[in-house]
Amino acid sequence: MSMExxxxxxxxxxxxxxxxxxxxSWLLTTDHKRIALLYLISITFFFFIGGFFALLIRLELLxxxxxxxxxxxxxxxxxxxxxxxxxxxLIPSIPAVLGNFxxxxxxxxxxxxxxxxxxxxxxxxxxxxxxxxxxxxxxGVDTGWTFYAPFTTNFTNTNFIEAGMAIFVAGFxxxxxxxxxxxxxxxxxxxxLTWARLPxxxxxxxxxxxxxxxxxxxxxxxxxxxxxxxxxxxxxxxxKLGGDPLLFQHLFxxxxxxxxxxxxxxxxxxxxxxxxxxxxxxIFGYSxxxxxxxxxxxxxxxxxxxxxxxxxxxxxxxLVFSLLSYAVAVPSAIKVFNWTATLYKGSIHYDAPMLxxxxxxxLFTMGGLTGLFLAALGINVHVTDTYFVVAHxxxxxxxxxxxxxxxxxxxxxxxxxxxxxxxxxxxLAALIVFIGFNLTFFPQFILGYLGMPRRYYDYSHMPEFxxxxxxxxxxxxxxxxxxxxxxxxxxxxxxxxxPASDNPWNAAGLEWKTASPPPTFNFDEEPVVTWEAYNYxxxxxxxxxxxxxxx
Amino acid sequence: xxxxxxxxxxxxxxYFAVFFALLVGTGLTxxxxxxxxxxxxxxxxxxxxxxxxxxxxxxxxxxxxxxxKLTKLVVIGAxxxxxLLLGLTMTDYATRLWS
Lengths: 551, 99
Known about the structure:
The complex is a heterodimer of chains A (551) and B (99). Chain A is mainly α. Chain A is built from 17 helices and no strands. Chain A is globular. Chain B starts with 10 loop residues before the first helix and ends in a 6-residue tail after the last helix.
């Protein structure tokens, strides 16, 4: 699909980017679009910090001997990699950046329901981030991102309290984002925009917000309990004091398993938008895809103990959770099948966002199917705490969520910046990311199946694992290049990119009916929606006049 | 968002009454901790805490008299998910071989 190029206008139009200038106009803004950009800068910073730790991990594993870092340092590296990537990049990535930017525009609203709470959420994120940075610079934490009791409560000498506080505070930022989305989607939809007409991106964010609201308080309480037991020796998790260490795992995974859906559901929302646009078709089975988001949010809360099959929980409970874990595959599969059916006989265009969408489809499917392996009790026992699990969740979180995030960034970049990115470079980057990702993580499935445990810095007793580890490290290098490229050309395009028209993809959705970049309050007049979502057949029909609601 | 003041002539008076009830609840919790009630220790403490949490939700969070459907949805949703947490955790605790 060729992108339209707008003819530059003589007088500069007022947009959210040029309405005010200066640092304070950004730091005190309540405009959801500016807050989205504040989040974009912040999460990109943490992505590269987390990526740096990943690089060191992969370099250490290049050789079987533990020769680059000490064992203690390695423990800290994978802990800080996990904590930074999960709590400071993946969880806020799509909701706080693209969700913040797009949710009000997609429903025809001027802003989110609580703009100041939106800004507060960013400040809480930053306070959490500063605490985490301080914790890293003063020695880091070696508990693993899962910070299991009793290691965290009784044994570790590292500063878990500070890392826990960082996650606690950042959690509230996530709760506030979810709260804002739920109220906004319920109360601020444009006239005519019924639930059945909502873009699937909105359905996905609604489902995500439910998890953020109901799950995050549980991890917050768990952190408080760990801190209370560590500092005050209250008997919650320590058996010597009358506690139960498995209680920690129940509480931790009650949040942390659904947290995976906080990462993947918004990416699924992006997939629906991109696949419909670049197939020029309405999403096949719209209502099934919409309700499968809600089903994933609810079912996601029923499966947590599959992380605990070997931890000593009851066999009966393990059976129940194994069965329920299979159940969550159903709504995920509904989505994948419906996206695939949407492609069928579609007029498919291979632009960069669509390449990321194809990448997502393949990688998420592999991640999801290997999740079914892990739901099976017998296989789970064999591969628990091996690289098989590491590969599985990276296929979901990186292959799924990050591919979705990058696809979404490319799709909406013309709207966000008012500029076009270089399409050729973007397609190349999508290809590099796909190849680099598979080269990094596919060998890890084999390593795990063969028995290489995760979180080991030295595998000199098993030198035959080296070839696969070298492949994985090589892949990580390629993947790193794939991630650097978009950052470079996005920045380049802000100055040198061609000006984008309001709707360069000829896409459906209210966000494309306003200007690129949009004015501060998104629409000059309130839009009235009289059409179904993804009305591509109508849009592509000859002699159709688009309804514009902004200059 | 809600019509919380519709039945009360002085919401401030009501807030202080609830606050006083919460203080009494805290006193009761401390007092109950000094008694050895055997297997009922936890049940009594949790019972008092539940009453206090209910007071906070009903009056300070304006769930009492809330006419807004969304508020009701949030309350029902939160209770449902709490039930999931407790219920599914009990599938482990009720059937684990403790020996």
